[in-house]
Amino acid sequence: MTDIGVNLTDRSFAEDLDAVLARATEAGVSTLIVTGTSVTGTDAARALCQSRPGQLYFTAGVHPHHARDYSHAAHQQLRLLARHHACVAIGETGLDFNRNFSSQDEQMAAFEQQVELAIETGLPLFLHERDAHPQQLAILKRHRDSISRAVAHCFTGSEAELQGYLELDLYIGLTGWICDERRGSHLLPLIRDIPADRLLLETDAPYLLPRDIRPKPKSGRNEPCHLPHIAERVALATGEPIETLRARLHANSQTFFNLGGR
User: Is 153 annotated as a binding residue?
Assistant: First the structure.
């Protein structure tokens, strides 16, 4: 399997990263995409991937929380990082009007520039969005014909929001949110609406530990090794044999990130 979004540069993994990766491999999670959320974080992801070629890849981007730091120099640094052979997407980028750690104008400007970088490089977009669906959709619509591929990372939205993304032929990334009966149950019937070749799975570790996982890790930290648990919940929702589903998800990931051509 491929975990399409994992924050391995998070400090919670600093002490036992080798063990985390070993558990992932044992669970059948053979490929991990390390998320870049700032220029510094992207560079750290690049360094991490260089030490484990063929297993780890990374995305190059500035999260909307950090959009205020998006300068001409930052854009040039991202452009250089995006040329690295292990870079497979631009992002995490998008809009987050929930917390507004950066102003909405700063977020939209940074997002537009990263969309342009994705168009320039031909790399797909790894998208974040929270409480800004109409604005994000409008930007994507303007550029969609020039964007190679895009995934709505950690999708937790409504049926209407899902259809908005699917109308633009986006991939949909699901996380352990679907294992949370308090907040994620509305997603389960929507899974059948996602085309078979557009579904991707991720842990977003160390965040979003599946609520129903047993036994619960004492640390409360999520790990890539829990990806098969999320896949099992998807299989229950779709009625698809788990091995068939896992093979399809892995193939979708290979296509989206063009891993077969690397």
Answer: yes
Tell me the whole-structure pTM to 2 decimals: 0.97
Is 128 annotated in a binding site? The answer is yes
> Token pair for residue 74?
């930052």
pLDDT at 230: 98
Q: Is the omega angle on the peptide bond into residue 206 within 30 degrees of 0, that is, cis?
A: yes
Residue 249 phi, psi dihedral angles, 5° rounding: -60, -40
Distance CA(110)–CA(127), nearest Å, equals 13
Residue 10 in marked binding region: no
Strands 87-96 and 199-201: unpaired
260 confidence band (pLDDT: 50, 70, 90): confident
Closest by alpha carbon to 113, among 152, 79, 85, 88? Answer: 79
Residue 3 · residue 29 · CB < 8 Å: yes
Burial of 90 (0-12, 13-18, 19+ CB in 10 A): buried
For residues 222 and 38, what is the distance between their CA atoms, to the nearest angstrom? Answer: 21
- DSSP per-residue string spanning 202-219: ---TTS---TT-SSPPTT
The neighbour count for residue 26, using CB atoms within 10 Å, is 9
pLDDT reading at 259 higher than 80: yes
Q: What structural domains and CATH numbers belong to the chain?
A: 2-261 (3.20.20.140)
